[in-house]
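Why do we bother with a discrete structure alphabet at all? Because it lets us treat a fold like text: something you can write down, compare, and reason about line by line. To make this less abstract, here is a complete entry for endo-polygalacturonase. Read it the way you would read a sentence in a foreign language you are learning: slowly, and without expecting to understand everything at once.
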Amino acid sequence: MLSALFVLASSLLARNALAASTPCTATINSLSDVSAAEKCTTVNINGFTVPAGEGFTLSLADNTVVNLNGDILFGNKSWAGPLFTVSGDNIVFNGNGHRFDGGGPFYWDGQGSNGGVTKPRPMMKIKISGTFENVNVVNSPAQTFSVSNPGPLVISNINIDNSQGDQPNSKSGGDAAGHNTDGFDCSTTDLTIQKSTVKNQDDCLAINKGSNIVFTGNSCSGGHGISIGSITSDVTVSGIVISNNVITNNDQALRIKTDSDASGSTVTNITYSGNTGSGLRQFGVLIDQSYPDTLGTPGTGVVISDVSFSGSKNTFSVNSGAQQVAVNCGKGSCTGTWNWDELTVTGGTAGKITNAQISGFSE
Ligand SMILES: *[C@@H]1O[C@H](CO)[C@@H](O)[C@H](O)[C@H]1NC(C)=O
Ligand SMILES: *[C@@H]1O[C@H](CO)[C@@H](O)[C@H](O)[C@H]1NC(C)=O
């Protein structure tokens, strides 16, 4: 009996293993094709509209190649989302320049995820290792990408365009209609995001925790710049490289913000190299331990160390009325000597550095 069960079990396992690695090709034309397609290692997706109130969720077999061959639209309905989710190990996802359209204008009311109508978010939830590239994403209802890769992932050539949300609409009371439209929210490890563009109304990149993250050769416009934080309690951020990005018409180019009441967290080994920015509305660089206040009373429960501007020159110009560099650390919570040899900021006023030892840069 036991051995019969064993034979049955192992033949089932063998069949599953076979199914998972079968080199079949599947085509998705609608959500009803998804479950069969998840068994194949080549998945071609044609353009279609996902029914309102439903998500498009792909749980791929290991080593699958996905080719997007048309645009994906999502029906409009107030619900929690996410709109698109993809998971799997060692995946090659080719967007081929096609588009995901989140229908943002239907939801936008100037309140994002802080209020107003419930908005599906994030729009794109990426849970793969491997590569994800050549995808256009427009009109995200609120946050655009959330990335939580199970292994090394390289994201390349993604164009996020929520710029339509810069304009007010009838529901936004004169404010930009798009709000909290973060480009990439990444609390993860072993991730590279490169050669991508983000036009939005919030952070271009936000890292709340994680390590070994590289953000390089991207351009950000309209939003709140490249952010580490906000940092809450008991998290670690380490080994972050932000290089060769162009940041235009954002509130600030680069920011680290930690919650004033957070404790037990560390932010360490952050390197900025070769970034440039202009049209910065409030700050060039802002490092602030008083979040949610800006330049308020800083907390001391998050230790920030080894923040460097090194490698290639980082050059920013801020608008008149903006501050070039503001550092607002709690006493003793920004440690070590920070090498800022490769930072130049012009325009506006200088700003103030409090409780941090910085070499190679002074205001
Ligand atoms: C959802 O509404 C927005 C705004 O009116 C529109 O741009 C988009 O095309 C709509 N989506 C669909 C699938 O109809
Ligand atoms: C700092 O981070 C970089 C990039 O992840 C890494 O290569 C380097 O080893 C780290 N340095 C230390 C001292 O941990």
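What the structure line is telling us, in plain words: Residues 212, 239, 241, 269 surround 2-acetamido-2-deoxy-beta-D-glucopyranose (ligand 2) (CB under 6 Å). The chain is about 10% helix and 50% strand.
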